[in-house]
Specification:
The protein has 8 helices and 6 strands. The protein is α/β, with parallel strands linked by helices. Helix 2 packs across helix 3. The site of iron/sulfur cluster (SF4) has 13 residues, from helix 7.
């Protein structure tokens, strides 16, 4: 990394720290309204999985500015219920700028020609089907919004309201929200549940890598349940968690 790049990264981190200090303790919709309308106007997008909690941020964005880009990473491995839920929410909320991003066919052909890479090397599968397409989709933006929360898993306990990743600022407006907060918001605004939630899927990713959770388990315990993998890689610098050849 050049000195210029190092300094740019440091400046970005300082900016994220300053934003965290400025917005800490403020209401999620208030934070979003301010950064969508001012701080990152025209250069911000929401990355949404259209999972069990996604309706909250999608609803907030629809009220603030329905033209904000909403990026959905269609890995081509999603449950049909997730795709139907996406279509339902988009229509219901009047979201005007949905960007459904798919993996490059050449990458899939090269790394996952028979569609079973998730069994042999899930990190590489996520890299090809999620991280690379997402990095391309984020190119025009300076900031992206995530739905991550501290309480979802031990691996997320040290996250901050504003963070950096590569050349982007990331904002986690629901960082301190609990499952009850999400349920309360969805009820108050009459938002539909993900169709699989009632079957015990408290966190929904790709079909081959998600199972329902038992009562008392972490919401994300059903993701990559038979491996040590806990994150897909889109939240790592340069997708650095990728391990090839395993
Ligand atoms: S979650 Fe599973 S199927 Fe989806 S991209 Fe990652 S490894 Fe592949």
């Amino acid at each position: 990394m050049t000195t210029f790049e190092t300094n740019s990264r440091l400046e970005l981190r300082d900016r994220a720290t300053g934003l965290t200090q400025r917005y800490k303790g403020r209401d999620a919709e208030d934070i979003l309204g301010s950064i969508v309308g001012n701080e990152f106007a025209g250069r911000i997008g929401l990355v949404s999985s259209f999972g069990t909690d996604s309706a909250v941020l999608l609803h907030m964005i629809s009220r603030i500015d329905p033209f904000v880009p909403v990026i959905f990473l269609d890995t081509l491995k999603h449950f049909p219920e997730t795709l139907a839920y996406r279509d339902d929410l988009v229509a219901r909320l009047g979201l005007c700028n949905i960007q459904t991003i798919t993996p490059r066919p050449a990458s899939v052909q090269a790394d996952d020609p028979d569609g079973t890479l998730h069994q042999r090397n899930p990190d590489l599968c996520c890299h090809v089907r999620k991280t690379l397409p997402m990095l391309a989709a984020l190119r025009p933006l300076a900031c992206w919004i995530t739905g991550r929360k501290r309480g979802q898993a031990a691996t997320r306990s040290d996250m901050q309201l504003f963070e950096t990743q590569d050349r982007w600022i990331k904002v986690n407006p629901l960082i301190d929200w609990s499952a009850d907060d999400v349920a309360g918001y969805m009820q108050a605004h009459d938002l539909p549940e993900h169709p699989l939630k009632g079957q015990g899927f408290l966190s929904v990713g790709c079909a081959p890598c998600t199972r329902a959770v038992a009562p008392g388990e972490d919401a994300r315990a059903g993701r990559w349940a038979d491996s040590e993998k806990t994150e897909c890689g889109i939240h790592f610098e340069n997708g650095k968690m990728v391990r090839t050849g395993s």
